[in-house]
Structures are given as structure tokens and as C-alpha cells.
Amino acid sequence: MTNLLYLANWILQKKGVMVRFKNRYMVMEGFLDPNRDLMEDDPIVLTQFNVSKAIKDSILVNFGECGLASSLGSLQVKYVNPITKLCIIRASREEYQKVWSAITMVRSISNCPVLFNLLDLSGESVKTLIAY
């Protein structure tokens, strides 16, 4: 069935009809170790780079190089708020379950324990998710 869909998309592209790439947006909440801020002078700050690296490392460990390569095409950390610890992550419709499971397996960022909780999963635009 998927080969038939790819063939149909290829035919439509050759005729000049654009095919829309479908994404899933995940709103995740990060829970950092509360004792970490009290112990050290420079508390951990969630950044797009830190979150993206942790997700990619988790995909590599849990799904291998092939799993990482298949999900890197659309994986992007769109938004991170270091104060509220909310993140918006984009993944393709075919790969979002793999990315979601890899995110739940992330246990630390920069040697600080962290857990992620999925708040919302949507196919809508990121602008509708910024309400969080």
C-alpha cells in the first residue's frame, strides 16, 4: 500500500501538483532535578541544542543508525522555553512514534536527570501550539 502511495505522489509531482509534507508537533514538558539548581552555581538551561542532541542520542542508542537516519529528515526542535520547560518538537507523520518513544527514554541532559512528559500531539501548525 505504501509503495502505491509513493507512486501516486511521484506521478502528482511530475505533473506539477505539489504534495504536502505532513508533520506532527509534540508539546513536551521537561522535569529537571530540583536539587540540581541548589547544588551548583550554573544551573542547567534547556536550549534547543541540548534538547535536540539528547533526542538524537536517544534515537541512536535505541533505534540504531538506520532509525536515526530515517527520522533526521524532519526532526526539529521548534521552540524551547527555559523558564516553563516547555518544548515543541516537529517530526514527520511516519516517524513521530519513534521520536516520541526516544524522547520518553531520555534520562539526562548534561549530566542532570530529566524526564519528559507529552502534553499535546497535533498535526496543526506550530502557531496553534504556542498557546501553551
From TrEMBL:
SUPFAM superfamilies according to UniProt: Rnp2-like
This protein's GO CC annotations: multimeric ribonuclease P complex; nucleolus; ribonuclease MRP complex
InterPro entries assigned: Pop5/Rpp14/Rnp2-like, Rnp2-like_sf
Domain of life: Eukaryota
Key words, A-Z: tRNA processing
BP term (GO), one: tRNA 5'-leader removal
Single GO molecular function: ribonuclease P RNA binding
Entry's family note: Belongs to the eukaryotic/archaeal RNase P protein component 2 family.
PANTHER family referenced in this protein's UniProt entry, alphabetically: RIBONUCLEASE P PROTEIN SUBUNIT P14 (PTHR15441), RIBONUCLEASE P_MRP PROTEIN SUBUNIT POP5 (PTHR15441:SF2)
Protein's UniProt name: Uncharacterized protein MANES_18G108200
Phylogenetic classification of the source organism: Eukaryota, Viridiplantae, Streptophyta, Embryophyta, Tracheophyta
